[in-house]
Amino acid sequence: MQTMSRYSAHNMRGLDWLPGYCSICGRPRPERHHVVARSLGGHDGPLIHLCGCGNALYDADGILLHHGAAEMHRLWFWWCDGGDGDLAPSVPVWAHGTWAYLLADDSTDWMRALAMPGWHVIL
């Protein structure tokens, strides 16, 4: 059995974010996405609404689907609670008790993602 990373353990403290639309772009009819993969121990972890389903990265019009981006390690999340400051990405100090996200141009791992600029707070 794989040990949960500090990144995943941190995000397991987060709350569900299920607004009824994609949390990134606002599209209707989202799917629930496990912030921490079920295979990594996240089956009881927080869920977030994202557009698309499965691993599909683009829709028929060529528009990025955020569920697929997350599955392909391009979309990353961070629970903003002030904890794990040595790992935390650069997010505004006021962002507490909410999620932040990074949409990378290419697939990356969590350690590189946390060090990248471009993190946004989900409001």
Describe this structure as you would to a colleague.
With 123 residues, the chain is α+β, with helices and mostly antiparallel strands. It has one domain (6-121). It has helices at residues 6-11, 66-71, 110-115; strands spanning 31-34, 47-50, 75-80, 98-103, 120-121. A three-stranded antiparallel beta sheet has the order 3-4-5. A two-stranded antiparallel sheet has the order 1-2. The longest helix is centred in the N-terminal third of the chain and has 6 residues, at 6-11. It is globular and about 40 Å long. The termini are far apart.
Class inferred from helices and paired strands: alpha+beta
Q: Name the helicity range.
A: 10-25%
Biggest sheet overview: 3 strands, antiparallel
Total number of strands: 5
- Helix and strand run: HEEHEEHE
Q: State the distance separating the first and last CA atoms.
A: 35 Å
Low-confidence stretches: none
Tell me, briefly, the overall form: globular
Query: What's the alpha carbon Rg, rounded to whole Å?
Result: 14 Å
Count of discrete alpha- or pi-helical segments spanning 4 or more residues: 3
Strand sequence of the main sheet, in spatial order? 3-4-5
Quaternary state of this entry equals single chain
Number of domains: 1
Mean pLDDT: 95
Q: Which band does the percent of strand residues land in?
A: 15-25%
